[in-house]
Amino acid sequence: MVAILFTNSLCSSLCLSLCSQDHNITTGKVYREVISRERRGDYLGKTVQVVPHITNEIQEWIERVAHIPVQEAEGQEGQVADVCLIEVGGTVGDIESMVFLEALRQFQFKVGNENFMLMFVSLVPVLGSVGEQKVMRRKKDRAGDGATGETWSIRCAYPPPLPPSLLPSPRPSPPNTESRSSCPLASSPR
Q1: For tag attachment on the chain, is the N or C end more exposed, with fewer CB atoms within 10 Å?
Q2: Could you give the angle at which helices 55-66 and 95-111 cross, rounded to 10 degrees?
C-alpha cells in the first residue's frame, strides 16, 4: 500500500478518496504551523528561519502523514502504508519549491539512503517550428540545489531517440534478407 503526499500540487484531487486533507501540504500550511509554534514560545524566542524551522516542519509533516492509515476501498479499515510517495509540484529551481527540496535533501540523511529515493520528472518539449523533441541534459537544470536524484523519468510526446550505447545490438541477418533493427526506436525518424 502507498500513501501519497502532495505538496503545492494540482493533482491532489486524485488522492481525495483515499487520503485526508493532511496528505496535501502547502507552503501556507507549513508557515501557519511554524508561526503558531513561534507564538506559543516553542522556539524559546529564537529567530524563526527557513532552515531549520520551516524545513523541519516539512519533514515532521511527512513523517506524521506517512503513519496515517489510508483506506484501500470503501468500508475497509485503514492500514498504515508501506511506502509514502511525495510529489513536489512546480518547477525545480523556482524559489517556491526550494524549501521543499531542501527539506527532502535533509530528510534523505535523516531516514537513510536505504529508506529514501528521489526521482526527477522532466518534460521533453516538442519544438513547434521544427517538430523535434528538445532532448537536453536535465541535470544542469537543477545544478546547485543539492538534491541527488537516483532516477529520472521523462514526459514526452513520443519515445525519444536512445543513445547508441543503450540501443540493443542488432541481430545478425539471415543470408539473402534485408537487415532489420530489433529496436523500433533505432529506425524511427529523428
Answers
A1: C
A2: 60
pLDDT (0 to 100) of residue 58: 95
pLDDT tens across 8-41, in order? 444 444 444 466 788 888 899 999 999 999 999 9
- CA 60 from chain center: how many Å? 18
Angle of helix 27-40 versus helix 95-111 axis, rounded to 10: 70
Three-state DSSP at 102 gives helix
**Predicted local confidence at residue 154, as pLDDT:** 77
123 residue type, one letter: L
Q: Are 120 and 153 in contact (CB under 8 A)?
A: yes
- Give pLDDT, residue 25: 87
Q: Which residues pair with 5 in a beta bridge?
A: 86
Is the overall model pTM greater than 0.70, yes or no? Answer: no
2-116 CATH fold: Rossmann fold (3.40.50)
Torsion angle of the four alpha carbons 18, 21, 24, 28, in this order, in degrees rounded to the nearest 10: 180
